[in-house]
């Protein structure tokens, strides 16, 4: 009987994993495993099961290769989908790829627990004595969850970890727009409640993570590193936003400063000059804000256990402070646009982009929606455009924007007098002449997505400005100051993470092999392809303020612990 692998949740994590596992098994011929995707028959996602069984990928946006792999593996009988989780009764391994979210200062495990409970119910009556089925949780987990709430979920149904079910976690490092390529090429962490379980997941993934390394570690370490990668990305965006806000007030070119500082600390990328290059440098790229299903929640997940028992440390947290700095970005965009255009009350404003990131259809926590909603609250007459977001998108509706949303770019532009670019879609970057032509009444364009440059508007009467678009070159002293200010923040984050790891080891990892050691946390975080270079903990040097400017995060850095 061939192996049966289950994948619960055909989203941006589960779909590429299922397709790639199926293709690997297909290559083995008829003896290869069958991969069965499970999606409960919900109003918003039940449609994915018949779509997949027709050989159609349910993932929108620009996803090279995914559709081809889904089509071929379904046709070959190695990939299928079902609404019924009971079809996983005899599964040898199950990947759990459902979304986790935050609720207050902790995780919202509603969907995860629903999946685990349903799976445990199906497995409760499996004949004992066989090899216990393997569970690999791909979803991002708040540190300590595997050894506490996940283990307890199965135990509540009589399934004892390692005896009746093998529990591991291998957090996804997907990147919309590059889903298939990133799974194959990225290093991946593999945790387990036992080293044997982690090694079993490593073997299962060996055929699909072909360009990256599978790093075996403890569940707790994998949980900490995964949430840290996103939390530290959020911090670096917040730091860049603080510096850019000061540069904009001084008319200094933030992106030239960014490139100079990133070169000094040897953490560079191509993102300053390309809106669709994934930023990975030390200073990241400030935009309309930070959205998605990951960065807004993972710093809070990382702090979950410690926050409730150490509110003083939480108050000094750089990770938590960064959330507030980034959430202020839409308001800064409006203020800067009004500096250019005067009051936006009564103005016809077209917002370009509703998705939370470029070349994606995803609107989860999208700052573009916050921006459009805030503009309307100020009395602006808003149209919101996006080429990929569906007109019945649940988040567009949640903000009450369905009446002003359109996929028709010309229609959005026809009467606009102000344009705000909020999402860095490549079609916008490459379509400026057509945009200006379709917007005859536009006098002001504010770029909050690093799409264009001043010289793109030399022949145009449109007044252009944007985040980080100052005209003056940064001088050497400023470059060194921002480098020193950044080094203080990265050291502060290292001290904060060490404090969290110590807390978790003391309170949620009684056995040494379950614990998370700082040197391994740093080594594994460094395998993140978008940069997560955490220095050793140590004393923080705060530079003298530069012409009265000292980023809040730098000022806070010595207190983080
Ligand atoms: N953003 C900026 N400036 C930047 C980078 C991002 O404003 O320099 C904004 C984006 O516009 C977006 C948000 O932040 O609104 C998140 O962008 P992202 O590039 O982090 O994209 P995600 O959230 O889809 O992917 C992140 C990635 N995490 C890291 O790079 C550490 C990805 O590798 C993870 O797999 C993913 O979270 C996840 O699922 O955890």
User: What is the mean predicted local confidence, pLDDT?
Assistant: 96
Which shape, going by the Cα principal axes? globular
Helix content: 40-55%
Kindly report how far apart the N and C termini lie.
54 Å
Question: In terms of structural class, how would the helical and strand content be classed?
Answer: alpha/beta
Radius of gyration: 24 Å
The beta-strand count equals: 16
- Give the distinct bound molecules: ligand SAJ
Beta-strand portion reads: 5-15%
Strand order of the largest sheet: 3-2-1-4-7-8-9-10
Largest beta-sheet characterization: 8 strands, mixed
List the total number of helices.
21
Low-confidence stretches are: none
How would you describe this protein?
By secondary structure, the chain is an alpha/beta fold. Helices cover 42% and strands 12% of the residues. The chain is built from 21 helices and 16 strands. The protein has helices spanning 14-26, 48-53, 66-75, 110-123, 146-155, 179-185, 195-205, 219-250, 254-264, 295-309, 311-315, 318-327, 329-341, 367-377, 394-398, 409-413, 426-429, 432-437, 476-508, 518-525, 552-556, and strands at 4-8, 34-38, 79-82, 93-96, 101-103, 106-108, 134-137, 166-169, 188-192, 214-218, 348-352, 381-385, 405-406, 418-421, 444-447, 463-466. The strands form three sheets. Strands 3-2-1-4-7-8-9-10 form an eight-stranded mixed β-sheet, sandwiched between helices. Strands 13-12-11-14-15-16 form a six-stranded parallel β-sheet. The chain has a two-stranded antiparallel sheet with strand order 5-6. Helix 8 (219-250) packs antiparallel against helix 19 and helix 9 (254-264) crosses helix 19. It is globular. 55% of the residues are buried. The model has no long low-confidence stretch (mean pLDDT 96).
């Amino acid at each position: 009987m061939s192996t049966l692998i289950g994948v619960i949740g055909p989203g941006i994590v589960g779909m590429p994993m299922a397709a790639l596992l199926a293709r690997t098994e297909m290559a083995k011929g008829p003896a290869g495993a069958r991969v069965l995707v499970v999606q409960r028959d919900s109003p918003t996602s039940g449609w994915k099961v018949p779509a997949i069984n027709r050989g159609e990928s349910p993932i929108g946006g620009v996803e090279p290769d995914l559709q081809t792999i889904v089509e071929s593996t379904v046709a070959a009988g190695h990939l299928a989908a079902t609404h019924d989780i009971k079809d996983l009764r005899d599964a040898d391994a199950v990947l759990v790829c459902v979304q986790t979210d935050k609720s207050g200062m902790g995780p919202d495990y509603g969907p995860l627990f629903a999946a685990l409970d349903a799976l445990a119910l199906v497995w409760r009556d499996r004949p004992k004595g066989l090899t216990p089925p393997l569970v690999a949780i791909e979803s991002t987990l708040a540190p300590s969850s595997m050894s506490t709430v996940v283990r307890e979920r199965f135990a509540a149904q009589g399934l004892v970890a390692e005896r009746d079910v093998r529990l591991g976690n291998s957090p996804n490092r997907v990147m919309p727009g590059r889903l298939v390529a990133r799974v194959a090429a990225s290093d991946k962490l593999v945790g387990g409640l036992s080293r044997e379980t982690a090694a079993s997941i490593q073997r299962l993934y060996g055929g699909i993570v072909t360009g990256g390394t599978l790093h075996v570690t403890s569940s707790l370490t994998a949980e900490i590193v995964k949430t840290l990668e996103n939390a530290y990305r959020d911090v670096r965006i917040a730091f860049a936003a603080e510096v850019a806000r000061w540069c904009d007030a001084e008319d200094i070119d933030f992106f030239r400063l960014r490139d100079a500082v990133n070169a000094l600390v040897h953490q560079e990328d191509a993102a300053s000059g390309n809106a669709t290059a994934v930023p990975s440098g030390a200073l990241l790229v400030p935009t309309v804000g930070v959205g998605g299903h990951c960065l807004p929640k993972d710093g809070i997940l990382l702090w979950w256990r410690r926050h409730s028992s150490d509110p003083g440390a939480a108050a000094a947290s750089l990770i938590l402070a960064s959330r507030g700095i980034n959430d202020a970005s839409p308001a800064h965009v409006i203020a800067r646009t009004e500096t250019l255009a005067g009051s936006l009350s009564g103005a016809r404003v077209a917002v370009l982009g509703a998705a939370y990131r470029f070349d994606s259809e995803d609107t989860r926590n999208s700052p573009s929606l916050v921006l459009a909603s805030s503009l309307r609250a100020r009395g602006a007459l808003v149209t919101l455009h996006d080429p990929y977001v569906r007109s019945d998108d649940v988040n567009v509706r949640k903000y009450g924007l369905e009446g002003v949303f359109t996929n028709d770019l010309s229609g959005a532009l026809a009467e606009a007098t102000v344009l705000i670019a909020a999402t860095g879609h490549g079609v916008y970057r490459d379509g400026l002449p057509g945009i200006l032509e379709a917007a005859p009444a536009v006098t002001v364009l504010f770029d909050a997505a690093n799409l264009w440059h001043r010289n793109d508007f030399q022949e145009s009467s449109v007044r252009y400005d944007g985040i980080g678009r100052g005209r003056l070159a940064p001088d050497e002293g400023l470059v060194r100051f921002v480098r020193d200010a950044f080094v203080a923040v990265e050291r502060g984050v290292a001290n904060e993470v060490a404090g969290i790891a110590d807390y978790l080891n003391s309170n949620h990892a009684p056995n040494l092999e379950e614990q998370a050691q700082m040197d391994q946390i740093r080594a594994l975080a460094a395998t993140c392809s978008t940069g997560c270079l955490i220095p050793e903990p140590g004393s923080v040097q705060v530079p003298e303020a530069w012409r009265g400017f000292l980023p809040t995060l730098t000022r806070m850095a010595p207190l983080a612990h």
